[in-house]
């Protein structure tokens, strides 16, 4: 099949390279690990995207997760327009912040108080500072394969060995910062026990993604998450759930609700802002009382609680509270995933579609994968072909085989049928 036209996108990309490092404002957008230059998007509506060359796609990236209602949902758009007409930012409290907080706190039992920030990274950075301030300890235990934004101390990868000090995975992160981060593999109880033994009374918190979804979809067993909960409590460390992806995605209470586990601190982003730049962190009233101006842990933001962003969040979260919203979305996803899996099985293709809630990940393997190290980097060659074939058939997936796909309520059953056909044909090419 012929490649889609990218004339206009290529021109725009050329120009963008004069302005931005790598031509983009966030690295994964640069299409480095797939074919071609990035598509410049002109418009989104429902579950569809149009690029600058007029190509139309079914969108499974959904802005990397925020758009659980699809693009341009009237409830979000109308709220935003109303808010914009009254002014964009005041740097003073507004009733909209109360309204969004009330919506969250009355329907999500996992947090008692919340603080709004402007991104997921900011939420995680603040949650870590809070954990350190609260416990008066410095070290943070994180898992290889979990991404928590570009917070200095989180840009670390595992060294060799079961329990390691982090090694920086980005230039510009001082080694002394990485030394405060301990990195261990997922799904390995011994490694967690060993870490607490090796660093007694030093670990402020364990941080884990609600469901690790940034390095493939590494679904952990509930018992393991429960074990992390128990071990952190026994060691007077906090458990931080980074729910930037899973919050309001696996249900209104996110992964914490899904697993029925109470984290000490929770971070949110993406969905909470309806497509506007919003993040948040929340915890018990007692833990949150440590945040300034009530407590000694400083955290602030000129645009925090921005009225336009709050209005978008209110519009989006109100829709999620409609009875049956998650059931319908999750069932639709499960049926879609099952068909693709069945097709691959019938054809004896080595493909496993990992999925939870309305998240999915195509892995070119027949093994169960629960750890970053179990992903074969060579399988990404197949993804590269798959991605190209999908684009040519009008399907937009994030441009990396390590990224998950998202289904929104705007993806109709008919559209998913069309998407399946394109996926089947693309798989046939990958395995031809
Ligand atoms: N935590 C998780 C789990 C994420 O998936 C992301 C972003 N993909 C972040 C934190 C960072 O959020 P942001 O990009 O809004 O800074």
From TrEMBL:
Catalytic activity: (S)-4-amino-5-oxopentanoate = 5-aminolevulinate
Gene3D superfamilies: Aspartate Aminotransferase, domain 1 (3.90.1150.10), Type I PLP-dependent aspartate aminotransferase-like (Major domain) (3.40.640.10)
A GO term for molecular function: pyridoxal phosphate binding
Subcellular location: Cytoplasm
Positions where N6-(pyridoxal phosphate)lysine occurs in the chain: 270
A GO cellular component entry from the record: cytoplasm
Primary localization class, coarse: cytoplasm
GO-annotated biological processes: protoporphyrinogen IX biosynthetic process
SUPFAM superfamilies named among the record's database cross-references: PLP-dependent transferases
Cofactor(s) named in the record: pyridoxal 5'-phosphate
PROSITE patterns for this protein: AA_TRANSFER_CLASS_3
Pathway entry: Porphyrin-containing compound metabolism; protoporphyrin-IX biosynthesis; 5-aminolevulinate from L-glutamyl-tRNA(Glu): step 2/2
A Pfam family annotated for this UniProt entry: Aminotran_3
Enzyme Commission no: 5.4.3.8
Annotated InterPro entries: 4pyrrol_synth_GluAld_NH2Trfase (IPR004639), Aminotrans_3 (IPR005814), Aminotrans_3_PPA_site (IPR049704), PyrdxlP-dep_Trfase (IPR015424), PyrdxlP-dep_Trfase_major (IPR015421), PyrdxlP-dep_Trfase_small (IPR015422)
Keyword Cytoplasm: yes
Record flagged with keyword Isomerase: yes
CDD domains associated with the record: OAT_like
Alphabetic keyword roster: Cytoplasm, Isomerase, Porphyrin biosynthesis, Pyridoxal phosphate
Subunit and interaction comment: Homodimer.
UniProt similarity note: Belongs to the class-III pyridoxal-phosphate-dependent aminotransferase family. HemL subfamily.
Protein name (record): Glutamate-1-semialdehyde 2,1-aminomutase
């Amino acid at each position: 099949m012929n490649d889609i036209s990218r004339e206009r996108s290529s021109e725009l990309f050329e120009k963008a390279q004069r302005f931005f490092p790598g031509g983009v404002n966030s690295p994964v957008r640069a299409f480095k690990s797939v074919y071609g230059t990035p598509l410049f998007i002109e418009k989104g509506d429902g579950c569809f995207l149009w690029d600058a060359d007029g190509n139309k796609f079914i969108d499974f990236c959904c802005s990397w997760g925020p758009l659980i209602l699809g693009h341009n949902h009237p409830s979000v758009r109308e709220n935003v327009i109303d808010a914009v007409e009254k002014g964009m930012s005041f740097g003073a409290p507004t009733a909209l912040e109360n309204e969004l907080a009330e919506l969250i706190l009355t329907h999500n039992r996992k947090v008692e108080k919340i603080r709004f920030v402007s991104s997921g990274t900011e939420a995680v950075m603040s949650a870590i500072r809070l954990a350190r301030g609260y416990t008066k300890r410095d070290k943070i235990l994180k898992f290889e394969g979990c991404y928590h934004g570009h917070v200095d101390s989180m840009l670390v990868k595992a060294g060799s060995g079961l329990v390691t000090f982090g090694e920086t995975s980005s230039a510009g992160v001082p080694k002394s910062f990485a030394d405060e981060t301990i990195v261990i593999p997922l799904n390995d109880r011994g490694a967690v026990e060993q870490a607490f033994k090796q660093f007694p009374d030093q670990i402020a918190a364990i941080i884990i993604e609600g469901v690790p979804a940034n390095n493939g979809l590494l679904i952990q067993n509930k018992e393991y998450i429960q074990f992390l909960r128990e071990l952190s409590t026994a060691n007077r460390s906090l458990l931080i759930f980074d729910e930037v992806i899973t919050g309001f995605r696996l249900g209104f209470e996110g992964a914490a609700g899904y697993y029925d586990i109470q984290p000490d601190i929770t971070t949110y982003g993406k969905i909470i802002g309806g497509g506007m730049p919003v993040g948040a962190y929340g915890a018990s009233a007692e833990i949150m009382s440590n945040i300034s101006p009530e407590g000694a842990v400083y955290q602030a933001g000129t645009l925090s609680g921005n009225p336009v962003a709050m209005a978008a969040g209110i519009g989006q979260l109100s829709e999620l509270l409609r009875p049956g919203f998650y059931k319908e979305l999750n069932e639709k996803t499960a049926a879609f995933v099952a068909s693709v899996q069945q097709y691959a099985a019938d054809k004896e293709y080595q493909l496993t579609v990992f999925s939870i809630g309305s998240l999915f990940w195509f892995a070119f393997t027949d093994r169960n994968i629960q750890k970053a190290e179990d992903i074969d980097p060579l399988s990404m060659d197949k993804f590269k072909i798959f991605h190209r074939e999908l684009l040519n058939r009008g399907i937009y997936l994030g441009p990396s085989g390590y990224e998950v796909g998202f289904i929104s309520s705007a993806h109709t059953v008919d559209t998913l049928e069309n998407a399946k056909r394109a996926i089947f044909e693309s798989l046939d090419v990958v395995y031809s």
